[in-house]
Amino acid sequence: MVPRKQKTIIQDSAKHIIAGTNPPLAYSSKANNNSFKTKKKESTHVSGNDYVEKIDNKQEILSLLTDKESQNTGMTMALFDLQRNLTSIETKYSLLQNELNVIKMTIAKHDQEISSHDAIHRIKQVDSKVKNLNSQFDGIMAALEKEVKSKEKFNALQTDAYNKLQEHVTKQLNTEKNNLNNSFYEIQKENKALKKQMLQLESNIKASVATINKSMKDIENNMKLSEKDRKQLTSFNNEEVKLIKKELTTTNNTIQNNLNNRLEKLSNDMIMNEKNSRILIEEKNNLLKEKYDNDFIILNRSIGEIKDELNNSNIEKSEALKMTDEKVSKLEKNLQKIEKNVGKVFKESQQVTSTTKRHEEGIMRKLDTLENQLNVYIDDMNKKIAESNRPKTNDSINNSNSSTGRSINNSKTPEKIKQELLMIMNDKEKMSYQGMLAAEEKILNLQKQMESFKGDFEMKTKELPDSKLTGELQKQMLTFETMMNQVQETQSSLNKKIDQDIPANMEEFSMKTKNLIQALDNKFLHEINLLQKGMKQSNKANKSLIKDVDEKDKKRAKHEEMILTKLLKLEDDVKRYIDTKNREMDEDDNDRRSINNDDSNIDIEKIRTELSLIVNERSKLTYQTSLIMEEKVINMQENLNNFRKELDHKCHLKGLDDPRIIEMQKQLASVNMMMNDMENVQKDIKEKLDEEIPSNIEEMSIKMKNALNLIGKKINQEEEERYLSIKELQEVYAGLAIKYKTMAKQINSKSNENEEIKKMKLELDKCKDAVKKLAESLTTMKSNIESQVIDKKK
Q1: Which of 41, 149, 287, 770 could form a disulfide with 24 if both were Cys (CB 3.0 to 4.6 A apart)?
Q2: Coiled coil: which residue ranges (predicted)?
Q3: All residues at 6 or more sequence positions from 114 whose CB lies less than 8 Å from its CB, including other chains
Q4: So where are the chain's domains?
């Protein structure tokens, strides 16, 4: 991957993708050695990836509740308030996270400024102060996390209680609906039995009327036959005929009265049954309304309590935020003080380094002048020895007198060198390590020159004759030997300082570097472990989601099959009903009609109840099944319209007094009722298809697109982050390797450092392999999610 020069990089990992928390920022600044140094803000992870998932689950639960209870406006308003409160809490929490991340970034800046400082003992004090501040900050974060966990538990309990209450209410409603349906079915059965009894009575009445008509015809025939005899016996038979007529009239009247009484009783029983059924239905409806009202009042109370609790939690959170703001202000003040102290220390260290450099330059100049003076002194001594070996003349005597004057001046040079060496010995504590090494080299050169001159002087003085000049030379040589001893003492004291002080500092430096490397390794291993755990959890969550989706799809498919079978059955019932009624209208014979009456007596109320049940269960259907359902209902509606038109036409053709037309009008009224139900069903289905389903599809597609875009961005950011971290590790490794090499040259301990460097290389290779594996797992996860989304869309 090609490196990118960026000033601000959003730093993220798999745990932030899973948890849904805000990604931390990393600022990259290019140093003098062309190496990028990243400053990271650690994201505050709340309660182990659970807070944002629980809030999302609550929002899904609330959306389901709003879909179930869309008819109740009060509930929708309360749930909308709950959603708004949850979103406000999320925004406040994200703002808190951003502020805490800014504080962490400032602390990281101060840590890097302090780590680059040279004064070690003062830096330790600053490190202790920063550790105290970090411990205070960690305490604040732990308290905040505890508060968030407690609030999450409380919210989970509230949602569980709300769900249980809703389940209880739905169960009660279902039981009461079932009871109402059973009572309604029983009343319908009683009405059917009464109708059958009425039909039997009508048939009996018709049979009795037919027998009476036959008897009357027989009587008329007998009367016609006996007209001749009657003329003869008019006087005798008139009385008998009157008596027979009276008897016939009384019998007819009694039969008619009995039939009328029975019909009145049956009609009164029908009316009483209808009244009782209406009273029972009204009582049950009132009871249901009261229960609904009580449940709604309880729900409103629970929602009000939840609102009060949320308001109290918001107040507590605001107080906690105020406390955190106060603590943050205190931390900022302490950080400002630390910055001032660090600035002072940095200025003092700069002044100290400038003074040490000047001091070292002065000492090096003194040593150079000492070398020059020694060279001049040795040259003069060599000239004196050469002159003492020559034969004496007048010129040589004059030269000897002049040389004695010079020797007096040269005898003062060893004392000057001694004084300057003593000054260097006293000022060696103010020198740095490199300055001491350079001074040691200069003193070693002086020591070598003096030893070589001493050997030459001893060889030459043995060859010289005894004279005053040789005595003076020997005296000067004694002072020269004392100067040599002084040089040796200075050289030994410098060696002791280099052997005692400097190796301890080097060991401290090496220990610090080792500790830094171990801290980096532990940090990266911890992050890798967290990412692996996050990947395992995400895989488990994906498996559970897939199982839940499959189970829901199976249940939905079964439910759709049941509803489609019900619709097909309803279609068959309606067709059968229409066919039987058409047959009845075409038939003219009463006997045939009475025979086929049982087949034509199909329950329309049952069809209406089944339609209402299907409409109530339409929210669980998919888009395709709802379309099929709409087609079925439209076909049924068309068939019923045609049947209604035929009935109207035939009723107009026939007379209104015909009992069959009265029955047809009753059936037409029931058909009209069913038609109205069909129209309501069609309207509901159209509303579902036109309003609810397309909006849900668009929302789901938008959400899935946003989720895919976010996952892609986070994966790219994760790749960039891992690339930058690997590059940073490589730069740290290169710098540490250079430092270890220089330390090995100075202390002559190459073997141990090479082993440590090999260990570091192995650990870095492991880190690279782990990062590669993580990148591969993230890409596979992205491809799996995209494939699942595509399958769901299909």
Answers
A1: 41
A2: 177-211, 743-777
A3: 123, 126, 127, 130, 342
A4: 363-508
